[in-house]
Write the structure tokens for this entry.
Amino acid sequence: MRKPSLISLNQLIKSLDLMFPNAKCELNYNNLFELIIAVSLSSQTLDKRVNEVTKILFSKYPTYKELSKADIVDIETILKPLGMHKIKSKNIIELSKKLDSLGVIPNTLDGLMSLPGVGRKCANVILSEYFKIPRIAVDTHVYRCSMRLNLATGSILDVERQLMDLFEEKYWYYMHIHLVLLGRYICKAKNPLCDKCLIKDCPSR
Ligand code: SF4
């Protein structure tokens, strides 16, 4: 059994709200297809870079039908600034082929996770962001901040479950986004900016 957190959850929610009053997903998208592609491209890179790349990608390949028939070399050229561009190019073409064969985009965790290049974190982001189904997606920022704040421990799946246990469902959407922003801009991996952080009772301060 995990030790109870020392931090006040109400205070944490208030501090995160104060630090990130206009929090929202930082990936640009116009529809579900674009969100799935953007989220699947976002691992190990910056959302800003994904937005620059998807602007070009979606102007050339606006639907999964068109992307499913794309020349992989062309996609690799477009995705090059993201890193891991060869595997990401292969995945988004395969993903588009799968969507084309299904004829419909899945709206369940298992359905989304059956798509090439879509793991549990991506599926949770899509469910929460697009379908408004409450979930907490655990990426590297959420994981690190949860540890430092003593909110959760263990594997990524353990952390996901513990966070969903700890907070009422109505907080899940913003808890995910707030912890991503906290990790990205303040509670950085190497040098956390504790002097700029409003979470005064953080046990790692
Ligand atoms: S006080 Fe420091 S370690 Fe704690 S959440 Fe804020 S930045 Fe991270």
Notes: Residues 85-102 form the longest helix (18 residues).
